[in-house]
């Protein structure tokens, strides 16, 4: 008996996971991608490829590694990241909500989903450069985020596409889906311009609405008109519009999004003239090693409240909400060697001075006197007793400020001083569709839309007020796999 005809709309990590799962289940799968070959892959190519998973021991990670003979491994402490810790991290961003059903699925299925991809040739490597610090001759991992796909997001897309095509999947590029075909209450295919393509099931995996300024403003507020779009220009809410036209329920936090501080002078859509691997270099997420000032010369967040994995999504929003939608990240020479590569990237924007007074005068758009006063008050408030230790929440803090820094607070006293201008960047949106246990899209009345499935950014209820780094790609794989299995069954 021939397999079901399944169409996957989109070609990012969630779409590829759905396509691979559907092919495994015996379906014939056609993937329709709005972009051409160069920009295929949705937001996946723009990521660092990190995937957050629950694991009890370091041994659980070894089957996933591209190089199990890496000489650093015997000197590496991966720690543990049990399911309860993953759940607690999600709860910390839920603004008082209990875990959603989608979050429970994400946690419980995270390891198995990533290992499933490994069974299809996707390999991973420890994130030594961004998630570990050397301490007493060992590489100590922190923040619960350990592995990324080999060659980051570009590598993840390439490996998934290879697996998809090896199983017999087909991809059409420059084939943006413009509508859904229906017969009675069932979705029976899609429309690509004037062309109608029939199928037994459709999987929407074409992203959220972050690349639509009009939708951002309507759903999230006027400040989001100024957001830099970090990822693909093609995620303009097409899948949401098509599903809502069929009565799909609106589900999750439509005001929430994955955001991050970005270089102020980055162009929208991650500077598409650069190789995809380099586009991530416009993030600026080492604020925890220094301080951030707004145009009033004031600090506006506790830069050290937690590891940056748990704060960059909220701090990207916080920067965007400042006057002029800008801030400056200030560091001294003590942390130069700890700053990530994006701070020395060829196009990195910064100013430098040998005194804080001169630095404050160079902060374009900032109240100079207020900025200098803030930096001097910060220095005076630093507790010198606790040792600085970036591998843990070290408790090295300030005392007596209106907004104290609670970890990694070091005096800014070693020239040269550098300051980097940033704004808020948006990667993906949180609001989306309600799906059932098979990935089927649910209507407002609680019944499924026959023949319609969804995964990836389109699934609402996974994230609310924030985001533990690396969870987005894992979510795409978890819900993509379910949708693929559901569509093929």
TrEMBL record:
- Report the source organism: Roseobacter insulae
One GO MF term on file is: oxidoreductase activity
Gene from which the chain derives: tcuA
Domain named FAD-dependent oxidoreductase 2 FAD-binding is located at 6-471
Concerning InterPro entries, the annotation shows: FAD-dep_OxRdtase_2_FAD-bd (IPR003953), FAD-oxidoreductase_2 (IPR050315)
Please indicate which superkingdom the organism of origin belongs to: Bacteria
State the name under which the record lists this protein: FAD-dependent tricarballylate dehydrogenase TcuA
Keywords, A to Z, come to:
FAD, Flavoprotein, Oxidoreductase
Against Pfam families, the record matches this protein to: FAD_binding_2
Cofactors needed by this protein, per the record, are: FAD
């Amino acid at each position: 008996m021939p397999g079901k005809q399944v169409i996957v709309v989109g070609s990012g990590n969630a779409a590829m996971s759905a396509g691979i799962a559907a092919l495994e289940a015996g379906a014939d799968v056609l993937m329709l991608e709005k972009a051409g070959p160069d920009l295929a892959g949705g937001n996946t190519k723009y990521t660092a490829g990190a995937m957050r998973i629950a694991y009890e021991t370091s041994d659980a990670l070894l089957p996933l590694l591209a190089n199990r003979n890496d000489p650093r491994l015997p000197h590496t402490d991966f720690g543990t990241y049990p399911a309860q810790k993953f759940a607690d991290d999600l709860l910390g961003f839920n603004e008082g909500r209990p875990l959603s059903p989608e979050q429970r699925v994400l946690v419980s299925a995270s390891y198995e989903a990533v290992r499933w991809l490994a069974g299809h040739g996707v390999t991973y490597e420890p994130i030594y450069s961004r998630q570990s610090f050397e301490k007493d001759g060992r590489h100590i991992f922190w923040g619960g985020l350990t592995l990324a796909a080999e060659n980051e997001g570009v590598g993840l897309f390439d490996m998934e596409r290879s697996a998809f095509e090896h199983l017999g999947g087909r991809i059409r590029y420059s084939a943006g889906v413009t509508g859904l075909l229906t017969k009675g209450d069932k979705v029976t295919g899609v429309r690509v311009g004037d062309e109608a393509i029939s199928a037994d099931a459709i999987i929407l995996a074409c992203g959220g609405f972050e690349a639509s300024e009009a939708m951002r403003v309507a759903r999230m507020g006027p400040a989001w008109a100024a957001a830099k779009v970090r990822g693909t220009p093609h995620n303009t809410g097409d899948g949401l519009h098509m599903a809502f036209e069929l009565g799909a329920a609106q589900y999750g936090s439509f005001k929430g999004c994955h955001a991050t501080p970005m270089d102020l002078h980055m162009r929208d859509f991650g500077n598409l003239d650069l190789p995809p691997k380099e586009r991530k270099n416009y993030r600026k997420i080492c604020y925890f090693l220094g301080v951030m000032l707004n145009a009033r010369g004031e600090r506006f967040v506790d830069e050290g409240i937690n590891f940056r994995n748990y704060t960059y999504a909220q701090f990207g929003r916080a920067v965007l909400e400042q006057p002029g939608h800008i801030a400056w990240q200030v560091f001294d020479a003590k942390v130069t060697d700890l700053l990530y590569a994006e701070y020395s990237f060829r196009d990195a924007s910064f100013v430098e001075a040998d005194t804080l007074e001169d630095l404050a005068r160079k902060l374009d758009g900032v109240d100079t006197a207020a900025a200098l006063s803030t930096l001097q008050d910060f220095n005076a408030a630093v507790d010198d007793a606790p040792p600085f230790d970036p591998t843990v929440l070290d408790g090295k803090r300030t005392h007596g400020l209106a907004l104290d820094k609670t970890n990694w607070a070091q005096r800014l006293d070693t020239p040269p001083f550098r300051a980097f201008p940033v704004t808020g960047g948006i990667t993906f949106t949180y609001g989306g569709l309600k799906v059932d246990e098979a990935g089927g899209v649910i209507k407002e009345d609680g019944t499924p839309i026959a023949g319609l499935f969804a995964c990836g950014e389109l699934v609402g209820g996974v994230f609310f007020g924030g985001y533990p780094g690396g969870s987005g790609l894992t979510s795409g794989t978890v819900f993509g796999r379910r949708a693929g299995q559901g569509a093929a069954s």
